[in-house]
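Risk mitigation, structural track. In case the binding assays with pyridoxal-5'-phosphate fail to produce interpretable data, a predicted complex structure has been prepared as a fallback.
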Amino acid sequence: MRNPDFTLSAGPTFASARTLAALGSPIMYHYDPAFLATFHRLEGKVKQILRTEGDVILMQGEAVLGLEAAARSLARPGMGVLNLVSGVFGKGMGFWLRSTGADVHEIEVAYNDSVDPAVVAEYLDAHPDIQLVAVVHCETPSGTLNDVARIGPIARDHGCLTLVDCVASVGGTPFEADAWQLDICVLGPQKCLAGPAGMSLMSVSERAWTAIRDNPQAPRSSFLSMLDYKEQWLAHGRFPFTPSVSDVFGVEAACDQLLEEGLDASIMRHERAARICRTGIKAMGLQLWACREAIASPTVTAIALPDGLTDVEVRRHARERYGVMLSGSQGAGNLIRIGHMGPSTRSLYPIVGLLALGRTCADLGVPVQIGVGIEAAMDALASEQPVGA
Ligand SMILES: *Cc1c(COP(=O)(O)O)cnc(C)c1O
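Fallback model:
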């Protein structure tokens, strides 16, 4: 099949020419002074993006590696852990946590909702044995946000560590590792940063390192080992194994673009695209998946599919007929998703997503008010200040 004309997925997103050029830079020896300087610079940039002054480690492997590494490093047999589940990624975190032998409690809500921080506080009051809280910031498959700004300080007040999946939120919505008192945060470059998918960018607090060192089960001498990065790379400048040199170059270019634009401008750009898209969705007569618009993530819009349509056929039709790649539901429910991540937030991209989805629904026999939706979305777009024009 030919390549897509428009990628409006919820990650990986399409990388800029600058990132692609960086990915194509000559590969060098990983202990070459020029590469070592690049690696250190990238750590500094990731600190700025995650808003932390603590340690940052750049693990080699898509963000699932960093998430599993963090779960296995922190959780241990018998430890009380509270896992917050508002979607597919929260659910998946529970399987890793349980496999360590931890005593895993879950607060689970419907996958179109988010976890109420007040409920977390009550739960922790009632269960003083809990030592770790795991939460997903942007539940990408359902297009919703959990209020990590409030959950972080609640966990810390109860003496708990936090493990935060911020893979698909950072760069598209405010995120503050230190100010929100978060212990381990895992970011993926392939979402709002529009970088390559091959790395886990992680912040780690001193508290988290202490807990990991005290955990006899924490991975050591393993691809999953955070301690190897701490004890070999951070302490002695020795890589646990050879990093993917090309990915490091590509991720640095993606971070540069974000930092040159500015985090605030990038966040505004994502919020603006989401507003335009949602205005159009509602005006077309389609429904947002999120039970309240206030919890919808600016980085992706999930749309409830009308009865009789499935994400598989909608996605296939939009791609085959119109060359537009949308995201399916990943099992979160009967929904389809338009990503607003990185470059797909710019210009008319949200409108392209609306056109592809609206016309696909019509082609498949579900009437929608495409013209009304596009008109409303264009009005919304015209009334917004362009960001970073
Ligand atoms: C993309 C993403 C990940 C990485 O998971 P993949 O399934 O490998 O893409 C993890 N967590 C969240 C919330 C994500 O959006």
